[in-house]
Each structure stands twice: as C-alpha cells, then as structure tokens.
Design brief:
The complex is a heterodimer. By secondary structure, chain A is an alpha/beta fold. Chain A contains 21 helices and 39 strands. In chain A, helix 1 packs antiparallel against helix 3, helix 3 runs antiparallel to helix 14 and helix 16 packs across helix 20. The longest helix of chain A has 22 residues. The N and C termini of chain A lie far apart (about 95 Å). In chain B, the strands form three sheets. In chain B, strands 4-3-5-6-9 form a five-stranded parallel beta sheet, with helices on both faces. The longest helix of chain B is centred in the C-terminal third of the chain and has 21 residues. Classes of the chains: A alpha/beta, B alpha/beta.
Amino acid sequence: MMFAAPSVLLGLLALPGLYFLLRLTPPAARRVLFPPLALLRGLAAAERTPARMPLWLLLFRLLAAGLVIVGLAGPQLHPPPALPGNGPVLLVIDNGWASASDWAARRDAALQVVASAQAQKRGVALLATARDGTNAAPYIQGVMPASQAGQLVAAMQPVPWPVDRAGAARAASGFHGDVVYLADGITDGPGFDEFMTALKPARILSDGVTASLLAAPGLSGSGALTVQLAAGASGQHVLAQTGAGDVLGSAAFSHGVATLALPLALRNRVARLVLDGPGTAGATALLDHNARGGVVGLLAGAGNAETPFLGALYYARRAVPVGCDIVTGDLSALLAAKVNVIIAADAPFNNDQVQALQGFVQGGGVLVRFAGPLTADTPDTLEPDTLLAGDRKLGGALTWSAPQIFAPFGGGTPFAGLTIDPDVTVSRQILADPTQLDPATIWASLHDGTPLVLGRAQGAGYLVSVLTTANADWSGLAISGMYPAMMARLVGLAQGAPPKPDAKLPLLSALDAFGGLTKTDATASLTPQDVPGLMVSPTHPPGLYGSGAALLALNVGGHVPPVAAATLPGAVAFGGAVAPLALGPALLAAAVLMLVLDLLISLFMRGLLRVPVLLALLWLSVGQAHAQDAALNTSLGYVITGDAATDQTTADGLGYLSALVSAHSAAQLSAPVGLSPGVDDISLYPLLYWMVLPVSAPPSDQACQALSSYMQHGGLLVIDTPGGEAGAPGSGSGFAPGIEAAVQRATACLNLPKLAPLTAQNVLAHCFYIITDFPGRFIGAPVLIATKDARDADGVSPVIVGQNDWAAAWARDANGNPEQTPIPDGEAQRVVADRFGTNLVIYALTGSYKADQTSLPDLLNRLSAP
Amino acid sequence: MSEVAQARALAAGLPRLLLAAERLAHVVAAGVHGRRRAGAGEAFWQFRDFQEGDEARRIDWRRSASGNRLLLREREAQVPALCLVRLDDTKSMRFASKDGLPTKWERAALLLLALSCLLLEAGERVALAGVTAPMAGRAGLPKLAQALAAGGTAKAEPKARCVVFGDFLEPAPVFGTAPGGAVMQVLDPAECDFPYTGRVVFEGFGAPVEAARADGWAAAYKARLAAQKAAVVAAAQRSGQTPLFHRTDAPPAVALAALYQALRQV
C-alpha cells in the first residue's frame, strides 16, 4: 500500500476536532404538529441543553469523513517495486515474434519499470532487441525522462521476425547504467550467451513461457491437413481458419503433429492453421498451394479401364497426387462435379463434348488426354497440335529402332526439374504432325526428339496430350516413378501454376506479430528456390508472396533459428505483476454513498421520510419483476412438488417441450417456471403441469382455491403421476404404489369436472400432430379429460388426468440426451410422447380452435367434388 | 383546501361515518320507552268507549263492528325531549398523531352521530346546535350528518339539554346553562402521553415552540394538561353538565355508553 499524496493524511488529525464539533452541533429538529401548543408555551426554560447526536450516527459520519481523507490521499494497492542501482536505467525489451503472445502483459511490466524509474527520478533508455521494419540494427533510445520513455514503451509493437541478439549486444555494450531485461524466454540461436554477457542485466523479467511455433503445414498421405508444433506446450489445439477467420475444424497435437481431416470442399477453403489462444505470428501457419489439392476427374472410358493392372484408369488413379479428390464418371458428371483436372484415357469425343471440354479448359481446367488404339486413327481437334493418324511402333519384330527412353525435360516446361528414369521406355506412340508442330507445345520428348507430351495453354487452362497409353501397353511410363511426379505437375497447373523456382515474387500480404494478415505495399520479395533455409527478417517478412492464384507462404515456423528455452538466472516473473491499483476512487465512492445514506437517516430522524413509503417503493420495483416476466413471455408452469429430482425432471421435460413447440410452431415459449399455487400467481400460465407423488401432501386451502380458480378461468391443469398401482392398466402399473389414494387426496378439494377417457376423436389428438396414443414414459393407462358437458363454453377441458409420467419422457439433459427410457417401446414411444406434448401445449394455447380440422378432409372432398 | 372542498371530502365519507355511527348506536342498544299514557304518539295504546264530544273520525269502525259498542283507538302519548348536539369545529380538532388513528373531529363526529342515532330511535328530537332545526325520526340522521359536514347559518338555539364535543384545550372553557347535558372532551393519545424525545419543533397555531430536549418536558406538560382537564370538569359541573373524557385510541363504544348513561340519568 502506498499513498500518492501522503500529506493529505494529515487531515485525519482533524477528525477528533470534527468529533467535538459534531458532538456540539445538535441534530436538526423534528417538526411535529401539536395542537395543545398553548400548554407548551413557557415550558422552554425547563431544559436548555440540546439533545446530542446518537453515538452511532456520530461514528458513521466520522467514518465517512475519514474515508474522504484517505481516499483523497490516493492509496495504491500494488505500487511498482523499486529498481536496483541509482543511475540511468536501460530497459532492454525483446520484441521479436516470441513476445507477441502476451504483449499486453509485457508492456504493462515495462511500463511498471518505467513507473518505478519515475518514482526514483531516474532517466530511462530503451533498447528493442529486434530489428525494425527498415532493417536497422538495434539501437539505444535515450537516456530520456521516464515519462517520455513511458510513451515510447506504450507505442512499442512486437515484430514478426526473430530478435537480433548480436546487434543488441553491440548496442548495449556501450551503455553505463543499470540494465533491466524483459526477456521473451527463448535463446534464438547461438548468440544468446554473448548477448547476456554484454547485457549484464541487473534484473531479468520473464514469464517463463516458451512461445508456441507452428511449422511445416502440409497435406498428409491421406489428404488431411497436418502441422507440426515446433515449440510450445503440447496441450494446445490447432484451428483451421478461412481467410475471413471462420473456424472450420480443430485438432489436438499427438506426438507434435496435429492432423485435421476435413472434407475436400472445406479443406480447400482453409487459409491458415492457428493455435487456439492469443494470435501470434509464430502460432499461425499460412497455407499455400502445397496444402491444397484439386479435384481430379477420371473419365470413364471403355469397360476395362478400371481392370487391375490392365486398365488405363487403374494407374492414373494411383498417380493422382495425395490430397486430391478423385471423381469418376462420364463427362457431364465430371463437369457437374466441378473438377479441376480431367484425365481422359484413349477417349474419343463427339462435337458436343469437344465444345464442353473447350469451355472447361478456357475456364481454368486441365484436360490430360492419353492416346490409345481408339483415338489413334481418328484424331479430333481437341489436341494441342495436329496429330497424325496411326501410330509408331518401336522395338517390335518389324522395326529397326529400339524402344526409346525420355529426353531430359526442358527448363521452360511444367516438368522442369524432374529427373528422367532411364528404365522407362516407350515402344508405341502416336505422332504429332511435324510440319505443323509448334515447338513451344512440346513439354516432353523422347530421346530421339519425337514429341511425347504436348501441352498448350488455352484461356485460363491447359490442354495436354500424352501421346502414349495410360496403361503399360505402349510404354513403361505408367508403371514408373516419373508418372506420379509428372501427374503432380499437371494437376498443379489446375490450381494456378506453382510459381517458377526462380521467379521473383513480391510480398502480397504481410503477417504481423499478432497473426494478422494485411495487404502491404512493402517492396520485399523472394524467389521460391531460396525459401528452404531462408530466415524471416525485415527484408523477408513472413506473409504471402506472389500474385494471382500462385501464392507462396513464408511462415515464421521453419524460418527462424531453433527455439530453446533460455536459462535466465534470477529471472522475476512478470506475469503475476499486477498493475498499480488506485483505491482512492473506490473509497471516495463509498464515502459519497455513506453521505447519501446519512442524508436519508437525517430525513428519517426528522420525521420527513417514512419507512413504509420506502419499503413500498422498493417492493414495487423488485416484487413485480417476476409477475411481469411471466406476463410478457408465455411459459409453461409446473407445481413444485418439493421432491428435488422430480422437480428437475419436470423442469427438464417442460423445458424441452417449450423448445420443441417454439421450434415447430409460431408459439415462442420461455423456460418453464416452478410455482407454488396459492403463493405464486398461476393465472399467467396457459398450462400447469402437476406431478402428484404417492407421498404428496394434499394442497393447502389457498392452493386449492388458486387451482380451482385457475381451472375455472381458462387454465389447463395437467395432473400426472409417476406410474400407477400394481394391477392398474398400462405399462406404468406397479411403479407408484399408493398413487390412487394420493391423487384422490390431492384433488379432493378441487371440484374436478366429470371425467371420461380421452379418445383419438378429441381435438387433443389432432390439434397439431395426429396421434392415437397418448404415451409418456408409460403407455396404456387411460387418460381422462372432462366430458363434453363439463367443458367450458369453448369446449376446452380445464383438466387432463393421466398416469403416464409424460414429463419424464420429454425430459432431456443439458446435452440433449434423453433422461429416462420409455417403456416398453423406447425411442419410438418417445417420439409419440413428444408429439402428444406438442398437442397438449397447442391445445392449452389455442383451445378448440383446431376442432374444425377434424372435418377438413370431408370439407375438401366435398369442395373438390363436381 | 377550500371550505367547500373540505365539505365535499367530508360528505364523501359521510355514508361510512353514518354506517359506523348506526353500528355503534346498536351496540348501545336501547328500545323506545313509551310514556305509558294515551297521547299523540304512534303506537297503539288502548281502546275505549266513545264519549260525547269525541270526533266521529276517531272511531275504529272495524273494532266497533265486532260488538255493539262504539270504540275509539287511542295511541300512547309520547313527549319527545329536544337534545342539542354541538361539535367543536376548531382547526385543532383536525389532528391525528399517527396514521390509522382518526382525527379528533372524526371521532367526535362519530360519537355525535351515534348518539343522535340512539336518541332519534328513542323518539327524541335532536338538533345540531345553531345549525339545524330539531329533527325527529330516523330520517333526521342523514340530515344531521350533512349539516355536520357542510356547516350552516347560525340559528337561534332553543333552550335545551346540550351535548358538547371538543378538545377544550383553550383556557377557561365555558359551557351552556341548561343543565342535564354532557361535555365530551376528546383528545389524541399524543396529546395525553407526550411521546416526544430529542429536539422537536412543535407547530400549531401561532409561533412554533422549540424543545431542545422534548423528553424533559413531558412531566411539566402532563401537569398542565391535568390542570386543563380539571378545569374542564369543573366548568362542566358548574353548569350542571356531566363531564366525560375520551381518547381517540380507546374504543368509541365505551364513550358512547357513558354518554348515553349520562343523558338517561336525567
């Protein structure tokens, strides 16, 4: 506890003086009307000493005055701790990516240091250890007055790249003064010891938490998103977020890897994986094309296309890269499935199909055609280049040449960088017309220069022809490792071509230290081939690089030095550091409250304020709230039995029923309300559910009166029991011995109308659902309803009596699971019970309004008859 | 509040006051006591033979036809006494120290009307002194009540017994000269007990009186009040009236019974 203005406390010395002053001042006089005034005149001389203020009031006022004085003195609960030494203070703050997760606490801790320095009237110098956006090496700001340093600290922000230990060490080595180091708790590589030696911190503040780091997001073999936890606590969850921040899935880490299996349509919407918790650059993994798969359509060709080891699609299916979804079907089915890639093995197309496919390619699709005997003789126009009819055989009995191997892939083709497999030979192919061949369309050729793969960009998509078969008939390509590699490149074309390895990609959106992605006009850029081994820095900030669809993500994880917890001798935790708490305003507020109370007391003592008036006002404002609530919101009521378990079940049952009716009809019901008839006002509830137990005591006279009046004035009283006597009808027989007597006891004073069994002809059986049984947890016992003569003017029964334990069938627990099992039919019976409950509520709300629905079919029949 | 509005407010409360008065009157039930001689009363007294000089229209023809004598129906003579009632209408009467207690005026009016009810039912005549003419019969009671509420022009007072209700707090009270009446002093419990403590400013008519410590004044005040009550009693007895006393927190039936007894003794 510390006081901002301790001198004000001297005012406490004045309190004894105030004591005597208050003792001397008589309390304000009460003014009363008194007719025999004449008799009083002249008595005044008898007693001159005024009445004194009561002692308790005196103490009360002194306390209020004391509170004012102490409050004005400005007490603080958690004053900032004193700093070591007495020279200027160098505040070294780690503001790299690892400090973002609790930056607010760090800033508070730093501000506290500055406040301490201010209290000790010491200058402050600041050193942020990370390079700033201009890539300037860390430098010391100051020494400056503490207030100015406080403003700088408050404006300081973390950066999404690592700190520069060596630079900070160089900057700090020239400083003479006491160093306070606000550490992020990680070493960030080998220079840490030198850094600490140069710093010689007098005090180290650390929260002892190692920052979390996500690394290597990608697709698993099964097409699930995976991400590794490179640093941080393993109990965290990973969330898959869209670009707009919607969470599409979450997963926990197992052995440092989190796997999110999502349907493809969802998975391709995932823009980033983040850790559940405060957003930081380290806990964010941006996804690029590497983590997106396309939808590949395999065009069903001839009947044997799927035959194991023989069919063309058998191999194609296995060559499609992981993460892609595969759709098989005819052309219209594939186009309807919005595939990115269509693989057609030896499939001739008619004119309509050619047109549809041209549209598909123009719109960004990739059509990969394989040659084969069916298409060899009748080449159509849907080819990158003109093909010759017929085929060329190599290495056969009648040919001179041997089967050819692949020539190395050209640098400008999509296959650039793939190594060729010398074991793959092509023994049969079709030929492109050499006279019309455009050299740019040759993506792969054989060793003798014959084109084997032709490709051409058309619109936003690509048209690719592989001039050999998709199975092992004509070449060994389909059974080689080159096949999936080439296929991956072809599929990759569909999602926008992956950036070329040596292309210079500009920074499109930069990731800030808190994991936010913002468009930037920074001039940073990188080339994809540099990415492995690249460290994020001001020149290469994390974020998305590239333009258009082909984006490359540079994440913090994997591009910072390995993270290890730093050894910080004598570190003080700042996480628990509480900001200074000023008690003054609270004390002053309390004093003001006491003075207001004192005013009321004075008024009361002078007879100007009457307690009943106050109480009445209070009652009016508070007491009416409940009734008002019930009047404004329709809700079901139930009689409180006093048995906690039963009441809970009833409340749950009616709660579920209210939700059910609200969901399926125009009625909007609030949560049910437990009531004690005779005490609470039950007239506001359309339906009152009364569970009578064998041990229930008969209702009191007031309760009887209230219930009778409720039934007379349009309420629907539902009397239920938890089963019946042994030998009673229905499946509830034997569940509640003694219930018959209990019901008679309970209803003896009620003057129930004449009752008859409820039948399926009653409105209750078809006012919402058409039902023939009225089960609850039990079924079969007769349900009683007032006879036609005993109903009210609208033909609505004021009471329904059953022993099917309806509420227990309706009751669902907090998770929506049923609480009790209906006997004997289980869930099927519960469905009917729920329907009966719905009917019951609709009946209570609408009365016989639905009665004419009985004859509706007949009316419709008659209307439609000629 | 203007006088008219005050009267209206009172008139609105009249049925209640009347009912209460009648109920109270029947607690102190008393029958009509005839004078047991023939006269101009209403009740049948006796038949007697027709004599010379009797008017022919007084013959009870039906009775006479059953015999062979001419008979006259005689009624019992009743000589109603006149009783004046008077209610002190000063402002000090409109005082009640607590919610729930009637003001002194209300209680005095209740007693007055109840007494009038008793007297009227007993065949006496009652007049509100100086305001109304003497009234007889039950129908007189509402008129009395209205006159009580509305006040009225001063009329000559016949010389008769008088029952005076008031608080008689002003010095040296004087009562009428006709003997046989009663003086009912009605006081509020606060006026009797002086339950005030601490610093109190007493307001009323004239300058307020401030008591620095009201609890110290109780004894002296009670002594003065006792002297005032004694003066009232003395003045009443001097003029031949029965002095009576009533507190507004006491049951009114007791006071009414005492009043009725005091009047009947004469």
